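Exercise 7 asks you to align residues with tokens for two separate proteins.
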Amino acid sequence: MTLKKIILVFTVLLCQYIWAQQDAIVQLKEVVISDTQLKNFTNTQSILTLNDSVININQSSLTSLLNYNTTVYFKENGLGMVSSPSFRGTTAQQTAVVWNGININSQLNGQTDFNVINTRDFNAIDVRAGGGSVIYGSSAIGGSIHLNNELEYKKKFTNSVRTNYGSFNTFGANYTGTVADDKFSAALSITRNSSDNDYDYVGKDGHNLNGQYYNNSASATVGYKINQTNILTLYSYLFDGERHFSLIFPSETRTKYYNLNTRNMLEWTGNYGRFTSKLKGAFLSEKYKYYDNIYDEGYDYGKSESVIGNYDLLFQINDKIKLNSVFNFTQTKGYGSNLEGAERSIGSASLLFSHAVTQKLLYEAGLRKEATNNYDSPLLYSAGVRYRVSDFYLVRVNGSKNFRIPTFQDLYWQGSGNTDLKPESSVQGEIGNEFTVKNASLTLTGYYIKLKDMLRWLPTGSVWRPQNTDRVRTYGLEAAFKYTKEFNNHRFAFNAVYGYTKSEDETTGYQLIYVPYHKASGALSYNYKKLSAYYQFLYVGEVFTRSDNNSRYNIDAYNTGNVGVEYNFGKSKIYRLGAQVLNVWNADYVNVDSRQMPGINYNIYITLKL
């Protein structure tokens, strides 16, 4: 079925009700978000929400936040360097990063560097495990990370300034401000981070050379209620940064990398009785310059620009049934020192359905089809059921087909690109079990992923070219535990996550490189009136660095942890002073071969809320 036929069918099915059934006007809610599918159509999958209190005690990079609070594993080429995730044993290109409902993975290399995202620029961060290509498109195989900016339409005026200073001349500053009433709402965040990053190696001579970095980011969200049913919202984000890439040996040539990313989106939301309409227009750009010798003026560069149009129509059939159609068109152009003719247009149509049969039973399903000039896209689907057996026990079952498209570098890299590539595709399923008592909860999730046509760069004579070759089978278990206890003015909290991951090449039976079998993390916290203290821990098991699983080159398992304490001063105005000891055990560890991480180091911070 062609995309035109799908759009026609969806439009006829949904729009025939618009003029026939105009219910009474329903006013827009006080809190407005763009990524409504995350709340409405992922009820049968595992979603972890990281709130402000969790974000604030972690370092500002998205790598640090997720490393200590999720089962996602990170390959980090030294502190602050390039950081790539592995979610449920998949690759960095198979993890989608979604900004206010828009997939922002790089069009050049297909992934997101998690060290170029400052978490303090967002007031809501969610981690959704499992397949999500029906909603979010390419890359949502292992899971997706959602960065949202929410607006409130009630009278408020707030300002917050946070500064921190730590070892290695590490400096950070963040300003956030909000102003709103019942018609207008605006939020602003500005962040600056920098570091000499010249830490000494633990247990050996030498220190981190050429590791200095800085970055600046700004996020602005502005909304205006035109009337009781219509609202306009502008989302804008900018990231500007420069990193010198750390050396393994002092004799190596010093390099650096500069990148500039911008995102702008205008959204018109209308609430017309049972129908909620969202029309979005977005422009995304990414640009980098790579200097292979910092003392020379020459550099390689790459750039991509994407124009996105999106129409989202939600039909609330009744209190229990929702039907959502989403139409999207994206046009992207790529430029660069090594890119030839990089351009593509993608049209897609999705249909989502959710039915809460009773208070205990809910099921949902979805379909998506894309059409493009670059590749043949499979029909994607998802379906799931959630059933609450009792107050103590809830079970979730979900299955889906997902995919990842070839990147511009795969298709158009000068002299090596392959325009005949097919998308990677996967079929996967999961079963989740949630157990809840008064002060505690335990979630156990088992999953299975079967991936085919995996893209790899392989030698063809003297030239490396991308090919669809590998088949990968991944399965595992995830566990999440939470416990809280309060009495008088005391509050204790403990949370922990654990992941077991088996991700193997079906041809050889070997575990994929940089996928640990075991990862665990968590935190223990204590609050008394204005005083709070916490301990974070992280364990990562042994990983292979060679595709033949030669144990001689394995990276050893490691334990590390952070300790922090903070105190709130003031009454109407809050002054919060905090101190942290990072890698408190002075662990000697790496998570990428030969890329040493820092030993024990310190950080102090102060937050002023006015």
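Second protein for Exercise 7:
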Amino acid sequence: MIDYKALFNNAPNPYLILDSSLNIVEVNQAYLNATMTKRDMLLGRYLFDVFPANPEELEANGVSNLQASMNDVLKYRKADTMAVQKYDIPKRDGGGGFEERFWCSVNSPVLGDGGEVVLIIHNAQDVTDFIQTKPESNETHESLKVHVNHLENKIYQSAQSLQEANRKLRIANEAKSTFLTSMSHELRTPLNSILGFTQILIRDVSIGKEQKEELGIIYRSGKHLLNLINDVLDLTKIETGKMTLHEKTFDLYSFLREVSELFHSRTVEKGLLFTMEKDEKVPRYIKSDEGKLRQVLINLLGNALKFTESGRISLRVKLGNVTENSHELRFEVEDTGIGISSDYLEKIFEPFVQVSESVDKTAGTGLGLSISKKYIRLMGGNIEVVSKIGKGSLFQFEVLVGRAEASEIEVSQHSRKVVGIVPDQPTFRILVVDDVLESKKLLVKLLKNVGFEVNEASNGKQGVEVFESWHPHLIWMDMRMPVMDGYEATKQIKKTELGQKTVIIALTAHAFEEERQEILNTGCNDFVSKPYVEEEIFMIMEKHLGIQFVYEDQDLSLLNVPKNLEAILTPDNLTKIEKELKDELLNTVTTLDQEGCLKIIERIHVANPGVASALRMLVDNYQFEELDDILNKKSSLEK
């Protein structure tokens, strides 16, 4: 297979590729040599910002003629061969000023499927030496003309080859999109169950502190895996430079502690020493993209762990330049691993390149450092690496972060655990339609735990049947199922009068915006992406049903609920609790043991979620006396 990129870059003649807005998208080495520029100075910039006209030299009209030629190419969609032009090119030796060069240029369009100009190939043959010898003979003039014609033919042939390569690239991109769409679903669906059940276990009061810490590590690792999947599945966004920052205020100290905890146990397993050093001047609260900063550190620390068999791994954070509105944070990740050769250092930030030549090619995607570099640049910084074979590596980068205060951290009740439904609301019937048993079981358990009436179906056809007989208020609809998928099921339900009033929330493992728009077009009211966190589920139900939830550690006085919970804790409801459980709860209440009460209420919750939610509200607010009165009164009535 022909490597067009290598062919282009190693061509002896200078080439420049522009988009239809005359922004530079690619340049070969011969062009860089001819203009004494660096690739980073050119890529992505407007051609005539990089090479402006010299206002002091009116005879150097090459720039204006080049602009006219480019406009003709865009207008007529044909190649344009320019006469020899005089250019005053800015000197790149740091001394300032311009130097005189003569170029013979050919500008050739690359057309898209619709005949529009998508690229322009600019070949600037440097004929300065030839012109400065003042060739005046007709023979020399004809020789130059033949040479120009030959160049034009070569450019045309190259344009045709590039157009064919673009066609093949479009076909490959379509295949890639189809593959990524499928992989999105296959990867996200099991991860949804892993993260979901981990959340449920973390919030189980019967689980000890040590186990919860271990579950927390599993959950954070799962979230990181999800972030990696998102990056791989969203390669289009990375390739087109459409990434954006999602900045918010967060606690940097807690952030660093979490990252350190994630790697501490893993370094201990390998017999390594892990240290995290933070300069005392580093601010605690900053405004930045927490997710991207986390991924950069995890990528760098993960590589350090992978390539270090003995010694230590260090994470250091220092404060750099400080302005009125921002801080410069400097991060260092150092290891005593195998090191990276000097020749290989130039390649490691390219996509799909492993950090070490000796690494197993199956170990990772090779995207980590490439993504990290893009993220760091988005955050206003740069990354450098120093390494020596057999001694280890030191990665250094800086980012600009905003100043922030603790009061700016968003504290939402939705980030707290939902423990029940506020009393005196309608009874909401919820239908879960999903063909994956684990995913369905997770959501059903989550909803039943807070007191919803829940029914379930395993495909779209069953979902429509349950809807017709049970009339749910809200349907959680997986979109990719056998027999009948969620798209068709939604359409059938929304055709009915009752269906138009029924809220349908799509559950999708698709990562691309176009699929999400298609979902909404079928009639779904909203969607949630897998894997989800339970807060998302309850937030969207609150949004569409107007339901009020009871949150952990919430002050009852802030809720619109009856002060006397006897409306829920009626004799009929309390007699549904097993006598042994109720007696056990009463004994625990008398000792004012809140944790013990909550453990018993969790057991009551299995069969009586509504009653359990009301009991939990009293215990959460330390209303033991009222709870004791209610339980004693009801117990005496049962005798």
